[in-house]
């Protein structure tokens, strides 16, 4: 198996969506002064690589803590916008995806959708209860139109409209052309 990290590193002062809280990461305990190290994190729920719950854009929609864990993982595929897509699995786009794809996506009922999604597409998908993953890094490293396992678990934030995730694609060694067992990215 080959593990590919699709997550952007969380860094102090990293770019965020205009108007969202700044990402602040501070060291508050050090080995020298306290004999351990601890950091303080302050950020919005949509910082870095993250999952959006329906409640993000739809009042009364499900929050991350109310969704079963199996909604955040499963068989997935990177697809071309104009290509054929399988139904019922996670779908990812390595290029920008807009609202014009919504009808086709609604028909396929994917477990989740990820990539550079336009706000109207994201809103429409969440309205249908389809989770979205954004700010993924390195989707172009994944083979197109080949299945892989995806994992993108949120923090269990009570009432959370979204959450940063550690997004990981796991490729079968037979799909990558060799018996590699390594982690890439990060």
Descriptive tags:
186 residues; alpha/beta; Glucose Oxidase, domain 1; 10-stranded mixed β-sheet; two-stranded antiparallel ribbon; 12 strands; 30% strand
What would you say this structure looks like, in words?
With 186 residues, the chain is an alpha/beta fold. It has a single domain (2-16, 44-184), classed as Glucose Oxidase, domain 1, CATH 3.50.30.50. 13% of the residues lie in helices and 30% in strands. The protein has four helices and twelve strands, in the order ββαββββαβαββββαβ. The chain has helices at residues 31-34, 102-108, 119-127, 173-176; strands at 2-5, 24-29, 38-42, 50-52, 73-78, 90-97, 112-117, 131-134, 148-151, 162-164, 168-171, 183-184. The strands form two sheets. It has a ten-stranded mixed sheet with strand order 10-4-8-7-6-5-9-11-1-12. A two-stranded antiparallel ribbon has the order 2-3. The longest helix is centred in the middle third of the chain and has 9 residues, at 119-127. The radius of gyration is 17 Å and the shape is globular. The two termini are 17 Å apart. It comes from Cohnella thailandensis. This is Cyclase family protein. Pfam families: Cyclase (PF04199).
């Amino acid at each position: 198996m080959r593990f590919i990290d699709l997550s952007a590193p969380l860094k102090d002062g990293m770019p965020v969506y205009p108007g969202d809280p700044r990402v602040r990461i501070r060291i508050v305990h050090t080995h020298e002064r306290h004999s351990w190290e601890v950091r303080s994190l302050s950020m919005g729920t949509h910082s870095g690589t993250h999952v959006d719950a329906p409640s993000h854009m739809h009042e009364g929609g499900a929050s991350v803590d109310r969704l079963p864990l199996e909604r955040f993982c499963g068989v997935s595929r990177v697809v071309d916008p104009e290509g054929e897509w399988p139904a019922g699995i996670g779908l990812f786009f390595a290029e920008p995806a807009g609202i014009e794809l919504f009808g086709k996506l609604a028909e396929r009922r994917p477990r989740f959708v990820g990539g550079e999604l336009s706000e109207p597409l994201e809103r429409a998908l969440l309205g249908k209860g389809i989770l979205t993953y954004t700010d993924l890094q390195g989707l172009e490293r994944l083979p197109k139109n080949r299945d892989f396992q995806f994992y993108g678990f949120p923090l269990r934030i009570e009432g959370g409209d979204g959450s940063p995730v550690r997004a990981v694609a796991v490729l079968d060694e037979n799909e990558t052309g060799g018996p590699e067992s390594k982690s890439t990215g990060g």
